[in-house]
Structures are given as structure tokens and as C-alpha cells.
Amino acid sequence: MENVHLAVEDEDLYSGYNDFNSTFFTEELENDIGFQQALRTSQGRRPLMTAKLPGTAIGGRPLASSFGSRVPLASSAGRPVTGAVQEGAARPMTSIRAAGYTSTMMRGSTLDTLGQHRGPAPPLEGKNEDAPEEKIKIMEKKVNDLIEESCMAYSSGTSQLALEKAKEARRKEQALVRQREQSGTADHINLDLTYSVLLNLANQYEHNEMYPEALNTYQVIVKNKMFNNPGRLKVNMGNIYFQQKNYPKAIKFYRMALDQISNAHKEMRIKIMQNIGVVFLRMGQYSDAITSFEHIMRESPNITTGYNLVLCNYATGDREGMKKAFQMLISVPLGIDDEDKYIPATDDSSTNMVIDAIKNDKLYQMERDKKAQAEKYIMTAAKLIAPAIETSFASGFDWCVDMVKASQYVELANDLEINKAITYLRQKDFNQAVETLKTFEKKDSRVKSVAATNLSFIYFLEKDYDQADRYADLAMNANRYNPAALVNKGNTVFVKQDYEKAAEFFKEALKNDSSCTEGLYNLGLTYKRLNRLEDALDCFLKLNAILRNSDQVMCQIADLYEQLGDLQQAIEWLMQVISVTPTDPHILAKLGKLHNDEGEKSQALHYYSESFRYFPSNINVITWLGAYYLDTQFCENAIQYFERATLIQPTQVKWQLMVASCYRRSGNYQKALETYQNIHRKFPDNVECLRFLVRLSTDMGLKEVQDYATKLKKAEKTKEIQEQRVKSGRESSSRGRRGSREGSADSSNSSRGERRSGKNISLPASNEPYESSSPKELDAYYVDPLGPPTERPKTGAKRVVEEDFADEDIGDDLLPE
């Protein structure tokens, strides 16, 4: 009781609160020798005192402390302890149990205030996967994973796999709904998950062009009133009907979607109205389309809608409407910053690094593409309406140029002027084109180079190579890095047969623009002229990698392989040409020749026959086919080809003689006699025909034999006199001038060579009345249908027009977004 103080009247009631009693300081109890000794003695192991029932007035009763010892305490007011417990039961001391104390101490135990001797905490209670809620959560996660996999598969280009994943997600989602219904939690169905599954499935059906299934799935979503804003999906349904070209239904669904979207979503409403205008345009209802497009241009103008408005007014023939629409088109703001921000203005290295970083980033590329699209639409619209808005296309172009100069696209004015010159070229009004282009000689270097390039092209077409060379030099001086000007300069040097210098210009053009296909093609032709076949082949192989499926390039490659002696490679490349142009008779004939050179007669027959089927007037193909059937003793089949040759060359007696020879070979002597008689009427002095008539008449016992024999003698005598005259004339003309005689001999040999190349079949000899020369001597001579390399340049390869001002087709860029 020494630590218990009773209040006295004259004492301060608030004194003693700041006093510290070391008895209550428990942090050093482990080092307190007396306290630890007490715990080890019987005092610390004494059984607990319990209250006895029913006694309550036990003032001064010793109570068990939290340390296991008994301290007799009494309240200051003498209040009796009322909380009695059963005999032998320990009274809980819950007020300090959380600190690690206990009301009873075991033998040998020590104080563990931090709970270090209790061992590890018990493991967390595991989830019961068999519980219905856990099963539902797992199924929902699987459905979400399938939706993500479906979207990723579509983004990678595998639409079929995306559809399979979407279908599987739909099946699992339906199983999830049934699971909830069975567990009695149908009120907790995840509607967002159901909406996502159905929308993804409908999209995948649409991407795989399974339009009926997509429409049915969209209908399931739209008809469910529990989903939020399902009416927007009617836009997607309208797009499907648009793809099916069911335009009335497309307009119906677009309008239904427009009615269900509030005015707060202005951008969405504008896009839907644009789709409606496009559908009206496809239906030919231009006035309704104009109404929709004009509303869009007033509310939210854009380049695509302005271009479509120009097209609609052009279709209706409204001149004022076209002018108004064009003015609205060029006044559309692009929202693109000035490009000066990409030009370094200071010497600050950090600023320049930032500018270099953003110079080619995706945002700048998007801005550049947007500007290029706007310029393309404006140029196309101007070229379209220029001939229609005024009495002449020149006046129309002038009006368009004036409007463009007053707009934000002032740099397009010069381009329109050059397009005006190109329009003159298409109308074959070269003088006006030249005059228009010459006006640019004093303009800035870029426009001047373009105009000079086109002038060089015009003069090259007119074979005025001096002027072409002059303007090519002018274009190069204005812009040395203009690849088209360098190609034109190389062309002018090429026609002067200075191939080495031409190759240098073509190489320089390729250095400035590695994608200059004209320069690469012409460089290959130049190497062929220089007999550098390997270098030429390398050029055309590179060009083939750029211009896939170009028949001209592949023909050049095949021709080079043939010159290099690799016929198999030549055949393979010509087969690729046939896959691109399967009806080209010259390529088919070339394949026939190569197979014939390889000894593959059956393949040669196939390709020659195909060539004849597509072009039955090639005399070389006809000759080969006729000779082949004569060689294989199918004379009846050869007759049709020689008759065709007779129609092509009616003044050439050799084809008619071959027809008669085929009749003789087949044993039809009467028909052969009639054919020879017809030939005799047309060519009465032909010795070979008379010789066969004499022998056929003799064998058949005809009375006309004597008449034919007389005519034969007369014809032979006349032929002999003519030959003597020719021989004597040649001898007299060659006397005294050996050089002239040698030149004449060369010319004669050349002409005889040409005759041999044209005359493929030997006529029957005089001592062979019923047989012509041996069929093995009938070898069809084939002339390369492609011609010499320089005679078949790629169209436009040597005649370059600046690509920036080539004709643009009027596109049908009207599909809904």
C-alpha cells in the first residue's frame, strides 16, 4: 500500500502526474535480477487465488498480477470486487493479453513480449475452387482472354482464327450464363461481358464477309434493351448493307442510327451523314448527295467531303455549283502547323536534337500524308472541272489557277499550269504545250526544271534531238538532282550512240533517286549495246525486284539469258511472262523457238499452235507449223497453214506451190492438178509450176500435156535469157571499180541472206516431179518478236514526263469510314 496515496484536503489534486515510478517500467525486467529470481521461486509458481462464492466483501483480497505474482490491492473507496469466478478457474486478464502476457505461467517459461517463440503464422486459408463463385470468376476470365486473343488475331491478319476465337468466347459466355442460373445468381449476370462477346463476334463475321451472320448478331444486341446505346450499332449494319450494295437499306439504317444519336455527339453524326451522302452518290441521286455534303461542309468541313461535293456537281453539270464546291474545297483548314518549326533556327545543340527527333516522327508523317492527300484531291478536282466550267479548258484552268493562288495552296498554281501543258499534249497540240511550258523558264528553279524536263520529252518525241538535248541541259542546270532530267539527257546521248556517256547519266540519275526505274531500265539497255551482258542482267534483275510482274523487264531478262546460252533460264523467265500476259503471241512463239532449239518438238508445237491461235498472221509461225506437219508426214494438216500464208502473201507463189505439194504428198493428185492449174493462170511464166503440170499430165494421161510442155520450154528459154542478161549486166558494172564490186557483192549477199530468212521452204526440183525438197530441209526461221533491244524500249523509259504531273485518274474514294 506504500504506493497508494489517499487524497487529503490540503493536498494538490493534480500533483504527482509527472512523477515516474520505475516499478511500471517493463523494458528492463529481463535484466532485473530480483524480478527474475522471483519468477524462479515458488512465489512465481504459486497457484492462482480464486474468489469464493457467494462472498463479495473481500476488501484487501490479493489479486493475481500480470506477472504471475500476487499483490494485495484495495481500492481507494473500498469498493468490493464483484467479478467472482468458479473455484480453480483462472480469471482472464484480457486488457493486456495482446501484449504477449498470460494469466498463467508454465514452468520454465520466460517472458515473450514480441511473440518470437510462437512460431510462424498459420497459412492463409486456400480458395475453394469447387465453390460456385470461384468457378464463375474463372469462366469470366477465360471469356475475357478469348476476346483479347480474337482481337489480336485479327490485328495480325488472321481473320479466320479471330472468328474461331470469337465463336469459342460466345460458347463459354453462354455456359457462364447457365452456370449463374443454376447457382441462383442470375441477377448478377455480367452484361458488359455479354455485350463485348456479341460485338466482337459480329465484327469478326463482318471481317470474314459472313454478312448474314453478322447482321443476325447485331440484331441480338440492338433488340436487347438492357444494353446501353445499342442503336449506334445500326451504323455497322448500314455499312454491311452498303457492302452488299443494298443501298436503300443502308440509308434506312444510317438514318435510324442518326435519330438515336444526340446532338452532343457532333462528330459521329457528321460521319453518318457523310455515309448517307456517299450512298446517294452511288445510287445516282446527286441532288440528295449534294444536300448532305453541303450540310457537312457548313458544319464540319473536310477534304474528302469537299472532293465528293465537286464530283456530284460535275455529274449534274452545274457550272456554278462546281465553282462553289471547288472554292469550299480549297478553303478547308488542314490544321497543320507551319513546317518552319522543323528548321533549326539556333545553334543550340539540344534544340536541334529535338527538331531532328520530331522531323520524321509519326505525327509529322501523318501531317505530310494529310497535306499530300489534300493536294491530290485539289489537283484532281481542278483537272476534272477545268474543261467544264468555261467554254474552253484553257479558260477553266486559268480560273482554277486564280482561285488556288488566292488560297493556302498557292504552291499548287504552278503545278496546275504544267498540267495545262500536259493536257495540250494529250490533245496533240504540241505548239500550245511548248508555249505554256516555256513560260516557266523564268520561274523558280523547281518549276523551271519540271517544265524543261517536259519540253525535252516533247522534242524527243518529235525526234528533234538537238532541242531535246538543250532543254535537258536546262533542266539539269536548274536542278542537278532531278533524276528525270538526267534520264532525258542520257536518252539524247544514247541516240547519238555515245553509250558510255549515256551510262554515266543513267548512273547519276540512280544515285539521286534509287527508285528511278526509267534510269535503271535504260542503263540495262545501254549495257546490252556495250555487250556487257552480265551488267545488263544485273540491272534488269534489280528492276524486276522493284517492278514485280513487269512483262517488259522479264522479256529482257529472258533475252539476256538466251544470249548468254542459258536456254533453260530463258524458258523459265518467259514462262513467268506468260503467267502475266497469257495471250501474247510473240512470247508464245519465242517459247516455241527455244523449245525447238532444245529439241523438244512437242512443247514447241504446243506454243507455236497457241501463238497461231491468238495471232494467225505471223508468217514465221505459219512456216514452222507447216514444215513440222510435212516432217511428220501429216500433209493434210500442213495445208491449212500454207493456205493461210497464201492469204497473207498472195503475190508469193511459193506458198501456193507448197499447198499443191501437200496435195501431191497426200495422194490427192486431182486436187494437186487443179491447184497447179490455178497457179499457172496467176503466174503463167513460173517454170516450177509448168514442170509439175507436165509431169502430172503425163502420169494422168491428159491431152494438155503437149501444151504444157511447149509452155515449159518457152518459159525455160525466157528464164535463161533473163539470167544471162543479169549476169552480163553485173559483169559490165563491176569492171574498173573493185571497191564498188566488193560493195555490190556485199549488198547482194545481204539481200540473199534476207531472202533466205524470208523464204523458208525450197521448191521442188525439176527432177522431182512429185516430191519437193526433203522435209528435213524445211526449217522455220524465227525472228525475235521483241526486236533489237534499242527498238523496244520500255514505254516512257526514254521519254520521261515528271511524275509529279502525270495524269491522275478520277478516284472513287467514297467508301464510308
UniProtKB/TrEMBL annotation:
Q: Basic and acidic residues bias located where?
A: 714-744, 791-802
Q: Which Gene3D superfamilies match?
A: Tetratricopeptide repeat domain (1.25.40.10)
Q: Where are the TPR repeats?
A: 231-264, 270-303, 483-516, 551-584, 585-618, 619-652, 653-686
* Listed Pfam families: TPR_12 (PF13424), TPR_16 (PF13432), TPR_6 (PF13174), TPR_8 (PF13181)
Residue ranges with Polar residues bias: 759-773
Write out the biased-composition intervals (Acidic residues): 803-817
Q: Which UniProt keywords apply?
A: TPR repeat
Q: Where is this region: Disordered?
A: 110-131, 714-817
Indicate the transmembrane segments per the record.
none
Highest classification ranks of the organism: Eukaryota, Metazoa, Chordata, Craniata, Vertebrata
Annotated protein name in UniProt: Intraflagellar transport 88 homolog
